[in-house]
Amino acid sequence: MTTAIRYAHDDSFAVRFKDYEAWACYADGEWRAISVAEAHCKHALLTEPVYWRMFGDLPPLPDHAFADGWRSPLV
What we know:
By secondary structure, this protein is of the alpha+beta class. The protein has helices at residues 36-41, 48-55; strands spanning 6-10, 13-17, 22-25, 31-33, 44-46.
C-alpha cells in the first residue's frame, strides 16, 4: 500500500511527507529529512495546488526520498 505524498509548510519552509518519511526544504535550498511525527503534528497541511503556488520551483528531492520498498518497522 502506497500513501500519497502530503504537503505542508513550517515557518515558510516547504515540507513533503508520507506516513513513514518527511522532508523539509530550508532557506539554503537543501532538503533534509525531518521527524515524521513533527510533520504530522506541527506543520500546517496544504493542498497540493496551494503548496505549488506558495513555493513554486523547488530543488529536487534527494534520489532516495520516498523510494518505495521495505522499511524497518522501528523507524
